[in-house]
Amino acid sequence: MYFVYAIRSEVRNYIYVGMTSNLDKRINAHNNGYERTTKPYRPFRLIYKEKFENRREAREREKYFKTGKGKEFLRKLNE
């Protein structure tokens, strides 16, 4: 089982999209500063998650959320 997730920085205008098989562990890694790319933007809160049966489907959805239309969808979730 894989998850595609989006987290939003609580202090800056930044959304990170990722994929994982262990969602809780991954979000904790972001919030505890273990991820170099997201460390300056913490703390984060989960704004979106989606579950997939296989890695291929999850990767395709992750790619979509990293496009302009995908990011636009995620930004509208919090309006």
Question: What's the short story on this structure?
Answer:
With 79 residues, the protein is of the alpha+beta class. It has helices at residues 23-31, 55-65, 68-76, and strands at 2-9, 15-20, 44-52.
CATH class: Alpha Beta
Please name the fourth-level CATH homologous superfamily: GIY-YIG endonuclease
Major sheet summary line: 3 strands, antiparallel
How would you state the average pLDDT, rounded? 96
Low-confidence stretches at least 5 residues in length (pLDDT < 50)? none
CATH architectural group: 3-Layer(aba) Sandwich
User: Oligomeric state of the chains?
Assistant: single chain
Helix and strand element order: EEHEHH
- The share of residues in extended strands comes to 25-35%
What structural class do you assign from the helix and strand content?
alpha+beta
Strand order of the largest sheet: 2-1-3
Rounded to the nearest angstrom, the distance between the terminal CA atoms is 30 Å
Extended strand count: 3
